[in-house]
Amino acid sequence: MLVQGGVTGILVQGSNGEAQHLSHDERKETIRVTRATLDEHGFQDVLVIAGTGGQSTKETKKLCVDAKEAGASHALVLTPGVWPTQMTKERILKFHRDVADASPIPTMIYNFPVVTAGLNLDSDVIAALGEHPNIVGTKLSCADVGKLHRLTSTLPASKFATFPGSSSVFLQGLVSGSAGIIAALPNVAPKVHRQLYRLWNEGNLVEAQNLQALLGHADWELQKLGSIAGIKAIVSKHFDYGNTNVRGPLTPQDLEVAAPSASSKLDELIVLEKFL
């Protein structure tokens, strides 16, 4: 569904992939199956990016090696967040550089304060890391468009790819020079995201803005449903694949008991996705 919908890469074990709920062997097997399935269906050109965040430098290095062995082309690295008050700028820089030095595949910086105890890398830190030859991009789930624009205007796109991590700022990111988007909502509506990207490239800003408004409302409704369980419930119900299972402490989302008004824009988005 995703590749046929127009995506050019798959992120395995990002925040919605429940990486923290999987053993190392399970994480490696998930990457392997993803790569093998894409290849089997003729999608060898589709990238597989693996989330390799760990809570120590040693563990993160090992996860990067595992990702390479399983078929990933890039590693998305979270900053460890167990000891946030001790993660100084110097330690953050050293962590990501040490991981990049050891990684057999290019790494990307994953900035997501919600899952790293509030650690929020600023544009100065990310730009400094972007000078490393094996650090090639970032996913900004902080939704800070100003930060995104500072990075795209500092680091050339040919060297460093900057992606917003939320569909709520997809168009804003494109206006600011982003390379695309890596987010949760494309799991539900890849064709709609591809349509917005096409409208932007064609210079049709009015229609792109209208579509962005829908994405913004739908993304907010998805967050209120619970993104991880919500996505699984939606694709299982509306697109007939996968299941609603999540690992504890999370619990499955029952769409039938959710208030109808809680997903009106999501429903509109799903109708459009099926139409395209």
TrEMBL record:
GO terms for molecular function: 4-hydroxy-tetrahydrodipicolinate synthase activity. Transmembrane segments: none annotated. Pfam families: DHDPS. It comes from the Eukaryota. Pyruvate binds at residue 182. The active site is at residues 110, 139. Gene3D superfamilies: Aldolase class I. Coiled coil: none annotated. InterPro entries: Aldolase_TIM, DapA-like. Keywords: Lyase. PANTHER family: 4-HYDROXY-2-OXOGLUTARATE ALDOLASE, MITOCHONDRIAL, DIHYDRODIPICOLINATE SYNTHASE. Belongs to the DapA family. This is Dihydrodipicolinate synthetase.
